[in-house]
Structures are given as structure tokens and as C-alpha cells.
């Protein structure tokens, strides 16, 4: 049996008004970790100044009370990744760049590999889009 050290990972850019997300963001991430859904590999914050400049903040620069989650692979999101993900960030807004391992998919990926298969394409649809579509098309 093939056991991968890590399952599939995903990068998320989560946008916010203002220069940094509130503490509820870290709580939502902690809830996912506690449920065993994801493993947080990296988390950084970026903000675009009113002049249009991007500033990248490490997690430790944004947490005052020591309540930061443990990061398995801090630094995994490189500068190029971050700049790509926040390309459309408007001045005066911020984003959390979250890199997570999908724990629910780890065993599935191992079994696919053993069977000679692999995921060759994936497309995500954000929850607001799904819900808007379903509410517009409800019978």
C-alpha cells in the first residue's frame, strides 16, 4: 500500500476590506483543523496600500496574542505565488494566503496512485457562486 506523506494541497487567496482580516478568520481555520478536514501548511497576509503597493506580512507579524496556528511548511507560498494570487487585490484591501493539505483526500490519492490513476484536472466553484446559481434555478 502506498502512503503519501502529504495529500493534495490547495492555495487560497481570501480577500477582505481593510488592511487585515479579523480574528474570526483564524477561528474558522482552527475549526477546519480541529475537524481533521485540513492541515495548514502555510498562511501569510498581504495588503495593497492606497497607492497600490503590495506588502506581505508573515503570520507572526499579524497576531498579537500568540494564537497563531502551527504551520507545517511555513514559507511554502513563495513571493511569486503570493503576488499571483493577490494580483486583482484592490487598494485598501487585504488577503489571507492560505495553503492547506486536504486531509480528506490523502487516502483517496494513495488509492488512485496504486490503481494507476491520478487526478488530471480539477476545477473549483466558489460557494457563493454555487448558492446563487441554485437559488436562481430552484423549482
The pLDDT mean sits at: 85
- Total helices: the number is 5
- Uncertain regions: pLDDT < 50 for 5+ in a row? none
Distance between the termini: 46 Å
Pfam family, one: DUF6325
Protein name: DUF6325 family protein
Structure report:
It is a single chain. With 139 residues, the protein is an alpha+beta fold. The protein has one domain. Helix content is 32%, strand content 25%. It is built from five helices and four strands; from the N terminus they run E-H-E-E-H-H-E-H-H. The chain has helices at 23-34, 59-62, 79-85, 103-114, 127-136, and strands spanning 9-17, 38-48, 54-58, 93-102. A four-stranded antiparallel beta sheet has the order 1-4-2-3, sandwiched between helices. A hairpin with a 5-residue loop joins strand 2 (38-48) and strand 3. The protein is globular and about 55 Å long. The termini are far apart. The model has no long low-confidence stretch (mean pLDDT 85). It comes from Microbacterium rhizosphaerae. InterPro entries: DUF6325 (IPR046288). This is DUF6325 family protein.
Structure characteristics:
139 residues; 25% strand; single chain; four-stranded antiparallel beta sheet; alpha+beta; globular
Topology:
Blueprint: E1 9-17, H1 23-34, E2 38-48, E3 54-58, H2 59-62, H3 79-85, E4 93-102, H4 103-114, H5 127-136
Antiparallel strand pairs: 1-4, 2-3, 2-4
Summarize the structure.
The protein is α+β, with helices and mostly antiparallel strands and 139 residues long. The chain contains 5 helices and 4 strands. It has a 4-stranded antiparallel β-sheet with strand order 1-4-2-3, sandwiched between helices.
Amino acid at each position: 500500500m502506498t502512503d503519501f506523506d502529504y495529500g493534495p494541497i490547495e492555495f487560497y487567496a481570501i480577500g477582505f476590506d481593510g488592511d487585515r482580516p479579523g480574528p474570526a478568520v483564524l477561528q474558522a481555520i482552527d475549526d477546519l483543523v480541529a475537524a481533521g478536514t485540513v492541515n495548514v501548511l502555510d498562511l501569510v497576509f498581504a495588503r495593497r496600500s492606497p497607492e497600490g503597493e503590495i506588502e506581505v506580512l508573515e503570520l507572526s507579524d499579524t497576531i498579537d496574542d500568540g494564537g497563531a496556528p502551527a504551520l507545517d511548511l511555513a514559507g511554502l507560498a513563495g513571493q511569486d505565488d503570493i503576488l499571483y494570487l493577490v494580483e486583482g487585490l484592490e487598494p485598501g484591501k487585504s488577503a489571507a494566503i492560505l495553503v492547506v493539505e486536504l486531509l480528506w483526500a490523502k487516502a483517496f490519492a494513495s488509492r488512485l496512485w496504486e490503481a494507476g490513476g491520478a487526478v488530471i484536472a480539477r476545477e473549483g466553484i466558489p460557494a457563493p457562486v454555487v448558492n446563487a446559481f441554485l437559488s436562481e434555478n430552484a423549482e
